[in-house]
Design brief:
The structure is a single chain. The protein is 67% helix and 11% strand. The chain is mainly alpha-helical and 105 residues long. The protein has a two-stranded antiparallel sheet with strand order 1-2. The longest helix has 70 residues, at 5-74. The radius of gyration is 37 Å and the shape is elongated.
Length: 105
């Protein structure tokens, strides 16, 4: 298949249209890339702020737990067990275990 001069003439006329299409594609890709970069930077800022909040919450939880332990030691050394006296029998109970039992039929 040989190339004829008429083919060159028709292709030369289409060059500006092809160039415009390529430019719009390139600009669209750049815009998409910038949008993704902005989104990822916002997410990283959000993650770092959440991380700081979680650390602060952990610190307050640890402080509360330490305060509970200190108060428990001052009240007679009861940490995880609560003593009860029912009908002359002393029963030890673990606070971590629940009282409600669900039974499925």
């Amino acid at each position: 298949m040989s190339v004829k001069p008429i083919d060159f003439q028709t292709n030369i006329a289409k060059i500006p249209d092809v160039a415009k299409d390529e430019e719009t594609r390139a600009l669209a890709q750049i815009g998409q890339r910038q949008a993704r970069e902005e989104e990822s930077s916002e997410k990283s800022k959000l993650v770092s702020s959440r991380l700081k909040e979680n650390r602060e919450l952990e610190k307050t939880a640890i402080k509360r737990e330490e305060n509970r332990k200190k108060r428990g030691k001052h009240r007679g050394g009861r940490d995880n067990e609560a003593k009860r006296d029912i009908e002359g029998k002393s029963i030890l109970k673990d606070e971590k275990i629940g009282n409600i039992i669900d039974i499925k039929k």
